[in-house]
Amino acid sequence: MASRKPVRWHIGVFLAPAVLVYTALMIIPLFGTLLQSLFNKGAAGERVFVGLQNFATLFGNALWSDAFWNALGNNAWFFVVHMLVQNPIGIALAAILSTPRLRMAAFYRTAIFIPTILSFVIVGFVWKLILSPIWGIAPGMLDAVGLKSLFAPWLGREEYALTTLALVSVWQFVGIPMMLIYAALLSIPDEVLEAAEMDGITGASQFWKIKLPLILPSIGIISILTFVGNFNAFDLIYVAQGALAGPDYSTDILGTFLYRTFFGFQLQLGDPYMGSAIAGSMFGIILIGVCVYLFGIQTRLRRYQF
User: For residue 69, which phi and psi values (nearest 5 degrees)?
Assistant: First the structure.
């Protein structure tokens, strides 16, 4: 028992500063924002407690609610595209790259993961250049394969802009689910795979019947990380379409709506109280999603863990 005390003491030495830093940078600002959402500016410019009035205005006043529900719907679609495109592609790539007989697997993993470390500013600017109908290379590339008729100014059309940016984000971040699933596949004990091979389960059948059930907890973690990341998204939309999230707010998400409201933009004055209400709503949406995963989904996936 005495030998464990120094270990606990060393852990406490490193853990205490981390807790303090996390509290100072995350917990205090979070509660400060939630508290500020309960106030508003009085007639004389003073700070007045209004309770949940800001949330009632956000959800009930058409000037605010229309923009909020539009942003929330766009956020939901942004998330759906990532779930239906990014994560399945990441799982497929991980399954292919984990094949023992595949040559240059390390090169492919690195090449796919490189966009993940690029700056949002670089990614947004480069893809605007690529997709530009005036000086972009996309029309020429499609023309080279006889598909120029399919080209359209995707970032300039309301019906295409958000999906296009979601696919750009998929291109940038598909390396993350790929690497997480790849690590999960490598962690499967060899004894399990050898037993499956003895039973005649190999190739694609082995992946669907043996590997996939065993990596479901990892897929669940990737899904909730995708949910949190997408509902906190801001950078790519802001870089590519600006704070107004054009055309005609068709790419507006909660992050850009929060930015315009809190800090103001062009002729719109900043309102930190309503901005805090939007931030509080975002926190509530993400919290509900995380709780549904933790208490509703993760408990069902535990039976697949060793």
Answer: -70, -30
H or E element at residue 7: helix 4-22
- Considering the domain architecture, whether residues 241 and 285 belong to the same structural domain is answered as yes
Which among 254, 285, 262, 279 is positioned nearest to 34, based on CA atoms? 279
What torsion, rounded to 10 degrees, do the Cα atoms 290, 26, 171, 212 define?
-40
What is the total count of domains within the chain?
2
Residue 167 sits in the same domain as residue 192: yes
3-state secondary structure 245-292: CCCCCCCCCHHHHHHHHHHEECCEECCHHHHHHHHHHHHHHHHHHHHH
Q: Tell me, yes or no, whether 15 and 155 share the same domain.
A: no
Expressed as residue numbers, the domain containing 156 is: 52-300
Residue-level pLDDT at 68: 96
Q: For residue 230, tell me if it sits in a domain.
A: yes
Read off the pLDDT of residues 265-287 as tens digits, 9 standing for 90 and up.
887 788 999 999 999 999 999 99
Alpha-carbon torsion (20, 26, 28, 29), positive or negative:
positive
Residue 305 lies in a domain: no
Q: Is the pTM of this model over 0.85?
A: yes
Task: Check if the beta carbon of residue 188 is closer than 8 Å to that of residue 97.
Answer: no
